[in-house]
Amino acid sequence: MTTATAGKLAVGDQAPTFSLPNQAGQLVDLQSLLGHKKIVLFFYPKDHSAGCVAEVCAFRDQYEVFKQAGAEVIGISSDSVESHEQFAANHRLPFTLLSDREGAVRKLYGATTLGILAGRVTYIIDQHGTIQHIFSSLLNANKHISEALRIIKEA
After folding, report:
1. Of 19, 85, 91, 139, which has fewest CB within 10 angstroms of its CB?
2. Hey, what domains does the chain have and what are their CATH numbers?
3. How far is CA 119 from the centre of its chain?
4. Which of 1-5, 10-14, 119-123, 132-136 has the lowest mean pLDDT?
5. For the chain, what is the mean pLDDT?
6. Which residue ranges does the record assign to the Thioredoxin domain (predicted)?
7. How far, CA to CA in Å, does 155 sit from each of 13, 119, 124, 140?
8. Between 137 and 23, whose confidence is greater?
9. Which of 28, 33, 41, 52 is catalytic?
10. What is the separation of C-alpha 88 from the centre of its chain, rounded to a whole number of angstroms?
11. Which helix (H) or strand (E) element contains residue 21?
């Protein structure tokens, strides 16, 4: 379920809200998370791929720093709930992974590379739902974590 039209988002835009199942199959609604914490929302291409393992493990290793800074980390890919469940268990991920099977939320956020490939894009969303920062780099997975931490700590 989504509430905006697809397109490239920019800093200052309101983050489109959505509901997607997490790795336990429970629906997570972005709107219900807003107002409590900043959100680090990262889109990644595929569970179990080398770059994505590096990225999620780097987020895992810095998760407590994000929490102490008042932020919640959420990852999204088009993998299934079952794949996310296994991926999270294999790498001891303490944060939520959401399954966007149809790619609707990815499209809504414009989180693609060259407009067609599943991109690696991180959005920092404040408590009011406003996008504070966007970082996109398909090849530099670890830079997503350092960029997100920098922005969260500056806010």
Report:
1. 139
2. 19-154 (3.40.30.10)
3. 11
4. 1-5
5. 90
6. 9-155
7. 17, 26, 10, 24
8. 23
9. 52
10. 14
11. strand 19-21
Burial (CB count within 10 angstroms: exposed 0-12, middle 13-18, buried 19+), residue 136? middle
**49: Cβ contacts below 8 Å, ≥ 6 apart:** none
Q: What is the pLDDT of residue 141?
A: 77
CA 151 to chain centroid: 15
User: Can you give the pTM of this predicted structure?
Assistant: 0.91
Cβ-contact 74, 96 below 8 angstroms: yes
Q: Mean pLDDT across the stretch 63-72?
A: 96
DSSP 8-state secondary structure symbol assigned to residue 14: B
DSSP 127: T
Please state at what angle helix 50-61 crosses helix 141-154, rounded to 10 degrees: 30
DSSP SS3 for 152 = helix
Residue 115: predicted pLDDT: 58
Integer Cα distance of 54 and 105 in angstroms: 23
Q: Region 1-25: what's the mean pLDDT?
A: 79
- Catalytic (active site) residue 52: yes
How many angstroms separate the CA atoms of 13 and 19, rounded? Answer: 19
